[in-house]
What we know:
By secondary structure, the chain is mainly α. It has one domain (2-128). It contains six helices and no strands. It has helices spanning 2-15, 21-47, 55-58, 63-81, 88-101, 108-128. The radius of gyration is 17 Å and the shape is flat.
Amino acid sequence: MNILLVGVTTGIELESDGRSPAVTHFVGVVSNSTLAVFTLEVFFKAMSEGYEPWRYITDPENGAFNTFDLFIVLGSYIFLSSGGSGGAIGALRMLRLIRLLTFVKNVPQLRVIIAGLLQVNRLQICLAL
């Protein structure tokens, strides 16, 4: 549900004029709740490693994805502490889109679809040259 909500919110934000207080409030609420969910996920995953929480990022199978999740969460907090004004709005939109990619690891079928799309794009680029 969180993935869907972030995707819908990103679409609404990109399509809106950015001046509507209702849209601004909705985007803020979704952004903050999503950050809370991601923060809890990182915390609980690290704590599930017991007395070796560093294994959260050093795990051979999921360590790279976990590190990516951690950087997304930390980057979100850095963005919030900077006030989120000016050119940082574009960075927040990209950060939200990157957040969606963190869930690709949990859906093997989605990985196959994305890999296929990348292959099609590479083929189209080669044919265009």
